[in-house]
Amino acid sequence: MKIDCVGGGPASLYLAVLAKLQDPAHEITVHERHPADARFGWGVTYWPDLLADLYAHDPESARLIEEQSVRWQGGFAHVGDRTTAHDGDPGHAIARHRLRTVLADRARSLGVRLEFGREIGSRADLPDAHLVVAGDGARSRLRAEHADRLGTRVTTGANRFIWLGTTRVFTAFTFAFVETGHGWIWCYAYGFSAEHSTCVVECSATTWAALGFDRLGHDEALRLLEKIFADLLEGHELLGRRDIESPAQWQAFPTVTNASWSHDGLVLIGDAAHTTHYSIGAGTTLALRDAMGLARALRTATAPAELPAALAAYERERKRALLSVQSAARHSAQWYENLPRYMGLEPHQMFALLGQRHSPLLPHVPPQLYFHLDQAVGRLQTLRWLKQRLGPRLARTLQSRRGGSGS
User: Fold this and answer.
1) DSSP H helical ranges for 229-301
2) Which residues lie across from 82 on neighbouring strands?
3) Based on CB atoms within 10 Å of each CB, which residue in 119, 350, 382, 391 is the most buried?
4) Rounded to 5 degrees, what are φ and ψ at 35?
């Protein structure tokens, strides 16, 4: 079959690799609107279970990805002048451009054609393709063309965030929470190479405006953030997005969902199909797993007429897999949107609840009570069962007694 992938991100490139490995007779092209030498973005995170899946699907690209990644374990939380450490699970990070380069080189070596510098804005631009894969991101133009048929819905979060880099290299996942005269502002930081780290800054829309970020120019905003996070950065600078079009911009996170992932020979993958809040660090992992799922489904399509059934199977599998992740992302985003609720805790307690932010029970239970319940659950199997089975009922009861205040 003739398969055209639009968007040169990890999802499209990895699908091209896997589909070509499955059937070398496929004619596959990846279209990227930026030039081949464009370098933008910072680092992305992933976890050991993804690495195991990458090795199972294509050991060659997995080996190169692992070699070019950094590994860290646990993390730190800085709350004002107080710091607490956490011995968490190990994680990996890699520069986004390195990940794309590994996958692009691997695809090219298998006979995939890569085209750069051409904008594909419509399914009609690729009339000969049996299948067009829309991997062109959260603001996908191909998806927008069929938004009514696909049942696209985009909702935006309440907070503002900006994705930056820094020359300080963090060796563990690091959180920093700073109280200003206009409310809390915080960042997530992690190293992804020997030279740079990613630094994502977030705050409420009220704090964002009160600090002047709605009026400051890009460079002025970076200098102000360097002052706010001076203790964390230790004299290192913040860097805007390395992008050929524009510097980093403040955004409200767009949560993208689609009732259907395919229509008339077009199928969605990665952020074009779904987005999950960046605070759970799963975006790239989910995109690569979409590629794995779509490649598996395509094995059953030996002719173009069999594509609709294969695409329906891909959608069913991936939507099931996403249910728990999307729930975790939704609750994580809400935890940060209600951050002041947790900032009166001791740092170790706050960090413990930071790790529990995916829980649907947490918003309905007083933070101190939840912390002590969670500590007990960790020690007693019976209470662990109680939390899992009776937690939602307890949440409703407590919320009702407190008049539904949720604080």
Assistant:
1) 230-233, 283-298
2) 79
3) 350
4) -65, 160
